[in-house]
Amino acid sequence: MYKIPASVIISFAVLFSACNTTTSNNVNAVSTKDSGTGFGVEKNEPNSRYKPAFAGQTRVAAVKTQTLVEGKLISKELNRPWGIVSLPDGRLLITQKDEGTMRIATTTGTLSAAITGLPPVAKDGQGGLLGLTIDPAFSTNRMVYWAYSGIVGDANLTAVAKGKLANDEKTIENATVIYEATPAFKGDKHFGSRLLFDKTGNLIFSTGERSEMETRPQAQFLNSALGKIIRITTDGKPAAGNPFAGVDSARPEFYSYGHRNPQGLAFHPTTGDLWEVEFGPRGGDELNRIVPGKNYGWPTITYGIEYSGEKVREGIQQKAGLEQPVYYWDPVISPGGITFYNSDSIPEWKDNLFISGLSSMQITRLVLKDNKVVGEERLLTEEKKRFRAITPGKDGAMYAITDDGCLYRIGKK
Fold first, then answer.
1. Residue 270: left if φ>0, alpha if ψ -120 to 50, beta else—which one?
2. Which residues of the chain register pLDDT less than 70?
C-alpha cells in the first residue's frame, strides 16, 4: 500500500478547515480490518454474507494519491444541482433539479443567472431536471441535451430533450422532447438520467426501473424502457447498430438491460469501453462494463438485500446469462455521476475512474487494470457532502457538485 506524504495530509487538512468546524489529519482514513478478500478500504460490516464471484470483486486494497492535490470549495450558491458538464471555453454548465433551470459557472465559482426555457419537470422525490451533455459540435451549434422527469397526466417518466443555448446565455431556445422512456408511472424514484455522446455522434443515456415492486420486473422486459441503457440519434430515433434491432418484441433503441438505477456513465479514454455505476438496495451498488445486448441481472441477481433486511427475490448472486458486476460495494456508497481522469496534470490518476458518492459523502477513486478494480481511494470525506456528479475540466482538474448547492474543484495544488 502506498504511504501518503505528510505534505499531502497537511494540504487536505488545512483546505477542509475552511468548510467544516472540525478537521482531521486522517482525511483518507482506511480500514485496518481484513475483510476476508484482502486489505480493503471499506471498514464497515457488509449487510449480507454473500460471497463475491471472483477475487477483487469487492473491498480491494486501499491506495493513496502521492501527488499534492486539493479539493477546493469554489461556490455554495447553487440550488439542488444534479448534472454538470464542461463547455468548450472551460466554464461549467449545471442543471438545478427542483427549479428546472441551468446555470453557468466559471472555474473560480462565479455563477450566471438561471437559464430558463426548459419543459416543466416532476420535481418530487428523486425527480426534476437531471443529467445533461452538450453536442460534440457545441462550439458552432450551441446544442444542449438533458434528461428530466417529464409529466404525463398524473404520472411521470424519464425523458430526453434538446435545445439551443441562446447567445445571451439566458434561455434555452426551441426546447424539444426527443424521447420518453415509457411506460409512465406514478412515482418519484429511480429515473436514472445520466447521458453522454458516443464516438458515432449518438446519445447514450440511462433509465431506472422506478423502484417499486410492480415496476422492478420491467428492467428485464425488452418492451419496456425501465431499467435500461438506451442509444438514440439526436432526433430520438434508435441508433444504427443497436443490438436489439430486428429482434421481435424488443425495442430497437435498447443497448443493455437489467439495471436498477444507473446514475453514472463514462467512456474509458483509452479503451473506449462504456462504464456504468448503479445503486443497489442495501448493499449491491455496482460498477459494470457495458457490453451491447447484455443483461445485467436486476432484480434476478444482486449482492444487496431489501431495505427490510429480507432477500431480494431468491437471494441469488449468479445465474447463467446474466452479467456479473466488475465491482460492487456493500455497504453502499450511493454512486452518482462518474468520470475518467484523462489529463497529464496528475499522471498517477490517468485513466482512473472517479465516482461521486451520496450517502457515502465522498469521491471514490478506482484504479483499473485489465477491466478489474485493483485499488480504491476515498477522497473529500471530511467535507461530509452528498456528491451528486463530477466532470473533467479543461484545466486538468475535476469539478464536482453536491446536493446542498456546492461546487468543488479537485486537482493539483
1. alpha
2. 1-39
- Whole-model pTM: value is 0.91
Q: Is the peptide bond before 81 cis (omega within 30 degrees of 0)?
A: no
Residue 120 within any structural domain of the chain: yes
Q: Identify which of 158, 24, 172 has the alpha carbon closest to the alpha carbon of residue 95.
A: 172
CATH code of 231's domain: 2.120.10.30
Name the one residue in this structure whose C-alpha cell is 496528475: 346
Q: Is residue 1 part of a domain?
A: no
| Segment 334-362, tens digit of pLDDT | 999 999 999 999 999 999 999 999 999 99
Residue 190 appears among annotated catalytic residues: yes
Phi, psi of 115 (to 5 degrees): -95, 125
358 in a structural domain:
yes
Cβ-Cβ contacts under 8 Å for 130 (sequence gap 6 or more):
82, 83, 95, 97, 146, 147, 148, 149, 158, 191, 193, 194
Say which residues have a Cβ less than 8 Å from residue 213's Cβ, sequence separation at least 6. Answer: none
Three cell numbers at 132? 445533461
Which pLDDT value is given to residue 35? Answer: 33
Domain of 355, in residue numbers = 6-412
Which of left, alpha, beta for 300 (phi over 0: left; psi -120 to 50: alpha)?
A: alpha
Q: What is the DSSP string of 205-245?
A: EE----SSTTTGGGGG-TT--TTEEEEE-TTSSBPTT-TTT
Residue 336 lies in a domain: yes
**Candidate list 190, 231, 294, 386, residue with the active-site label:** 190
> Which amino acid is present at 297?
G
Total structural domains within the chain? 1
> How far apart are alpha carbons 27 and 5 in whole angstroms?
12
